[in-house]
Amino acid sequence: xxxxSKSKNVxxxxxxxxxxxxxxxxxxxxxxxxxxxxxEALRLIDYVGLSQEEGAAQMQVARGTIQTLYTxxxxxxxxxxxxxxxxxxxxxxxxxxxxxxxxxxxxxxTYENGEVFQHFGHSEQFKVYEVEEGKVISSEVVDTxxxxxxALSGFLKAHGVDVLICGGIGGGARTALAEAxxxxxxxxxxxxxxxxxxxxxxxxxxxxxxxCAHHDEKHGADHDCGSHxxxxxxxxxx
Length: 238
What we know:
By secondary structure, this protein is α/β, with parallel strands linked by helices. It folds into two domains: 8-96, Winged helix-like DNA-binding domain superfamily/Winged helix DNA-binding domain (Arc Repressor Mutant, subunit A, Orthogonal Bundle); 104-201, 2-Layer Sandwich (Nucleotidyltransferase, domain 5), CATH 3.30.420.130. The chain has helices at residues 36-48, 52-59, 63-83, 150-158, 171-179, 192-201; strands at residues 8-10, 18-19, 31-34, 86-89, 94-96, 104-112, 115-116, 125-132, 135-143, 163-165, 183-185. Strands 6, 7, 8, 9, 10 and 11 form a six-stranded mixed sheet that branches. Mean pLDDT is 81; it is low at 213-238.
């Protein structure tokens, strides 16, 4: 029997994971799938500028492995550009090892009664987790003290947050978080502690397309909040 492949370390998931040529609206168009670890190899070598040896060390794989990932990723990107197909980044065999500086990070979750609160802009509390070497070493619930919408990104930045896990969130809040260099994982649901553990294992279920669209359409109490069935009642970030 072949030995199961070892999961590769990935420092962050892509901020954008779906691409298509302008004007390509055909649902039947071919979609090329780039695995998360292929994306990471491409990011480390072509974007960050690491050598293959340095990239392999960061992903904790052999040089031959990252060379294969890198070659496959470039071939797929070439096909995407030349053939005008769709491109999606997903799947693979990886684990998140999001490192900043000395391998420490802070994760914030929109929080209410132990669950991921679904309306970012109306969050009264965040649960903030301090992580070291991929493990939670402490956590605390912090009150926003009435901060809302645009002010929340500054609130999180002031608390040294690197990653936000939340439910629904508006476009303006997304922009503010990006400017604060806070990684966003929207569309998460369920127990807050469990979602953080899933994130650290690289298995968080989230939807990068989740958003509150009520500012783009007619405002109403029953507007839809992203791809989930909940409604945000006018309180999501914008």
